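User: structure tokens for this one?
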Amino acid sequence: MKLWIAGSLFFFLSLTLQAQNKGREGQQQVRAAKITWITNRLNLTPDQAKDFWPLFNEYEDKRREVRHRIRRLNGETNNLSASDEAIRKNLKEIIDLRQQEVDLEREYQAKYLKVINVKQLSELYKADQRFTQMLIERLNHNRQPREKDSN
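Assistant:
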């Protein structure tokens, strides 16, 4: 069973990587692979899944928005022609956004614990982190041949 899960995950990831240039479609495939990965790792009951996934998706959307804003501000902050005051303002806003991300995690941790138990929550954090690591490794692995070809 675990071999099937791992195989299906890597199938999803390979589809994702093939579609990464397709934007929205690629994001949806990553999301589907992540859902499969987390569902299997948490052993959610049907009742838990019904309540958990809307919460998880809501959290992911809010966290994605905060991280997008942080990346945008980091880009603006790296603009050497920006005034010191503008850079200072952006740096303060980045710190505020990081705090917002921590507050968001606290809020959703409490919400998750109304749906799943503490061991499942711990596994969620590990599964999410591991999925991200695998995705990054896979992306880096797929980029290496292209980088060698371009040299």
